[in-house]
Amino acid sequence: MSLTLQPISREQHLAYIRSLPSASHCQVPAWADVKSEWRAENLGWFDADGRQVGAGLVLYRQLPKVKRYLAYLPEGPVIDWQAPNLEAWLTPMLAHLKRQGAFSVKMGPPVIIRRWEAPTIKAGIADPDVKRLRDVNADVVEPQAFEVAERLRRMGWQQGEDGGAGFGDVQPRYVFQVPLAGRSLDEVFKGFNQLWRRNVKKAEKAGVEVVQGGLEHFGEWQRLYEITAERDKFRPRPQAYFERMWKVLNAEEPGRMRLYFALHNGECLAATTMLTVGGHVWYSYGASANHGREVRPSNAIQWQMMKDAHAAGAHVYDLRGIGDALVDSDHLFGLIQFKVGTGGQAAEYLGEWDYPLNKLLHKALDIYMSRR
Fold this sequence. Notes:
Aminopeptidase; peptidoglycan synthesis; nine-stranded mixed beta sheet; alpha+beta; Acyl_CoA_acyltransferase; seven-stranded mixed beta sheet; 2 domains; acyltransferase; Peptidoglycan bridge formation glycyltransferase FemX; transferase
């Protein structure tokens, strides 16, 4: 298969994404506007007949004082990852990025390697000898994903070390997903564990109301988000980041980003953001107050988002990152414990991969990042 790669317009890129069942929200053209501190480029792959068969959003981060760049394709590129001639796709990409001044390339193949069903995870949590998800036999293993990994290694790509939740600019390797395709809402609800079903009903009985907000409501979002950041000890993003995300994503595709609030007696107790690309819906960010948990606003808001995703014809509701630790002493254990109650699946992606175009500068970046 003869392939050519060339820069494309945002319109070409978006048209290609719209032609697919889904793609990562990190690979839509507007994501470049969300990550405005990076320089962006849209790339397209074309077959011998001139038909577009792939796309990639590249984000360039410049090294201080030097016109050399880290080139990053978060959860991309959007290509045929099962193709036997993977070199034909990636070799011209590396050559192009090198010409653009990249010293290193980082990408995140959107390829799932293993899946664990909720009962399997629960059994792992209950087993004192099991410490991590990777220690539990997966319910589904994708042999082709291992072949992709082996091809990448043979080409000189190096797998990133981060095997945990990977929050921040590094995308999560482990996620939790609730399948919606071919299931009724009643079947989805019955898939919840007993505690989740009870908490959803408790929220309904207590009068928790879940509503959608708009751009003018991000002040309330930020208030809850900063409470959450202080409680969970992470550095919050500024309100302007979320407002920019809302504006650029919804300008590209109306309804791509939604904002939800869970209200009790008129007070906001929880808030979330939701992203949609094709049939894939993500729970993106969450925030909650330090009080009012007894009326279960977080369960109520998640259930409403799942219902809205189902009504929109989504095939999967993605709760995004989890850690792989199955012991309660780990600070991320609460995430997997909460999400496993939805009765969905944990999925492991291939993770992020690096290609050093300039080994000296790539090594220097590694040292710098390890000391941050």
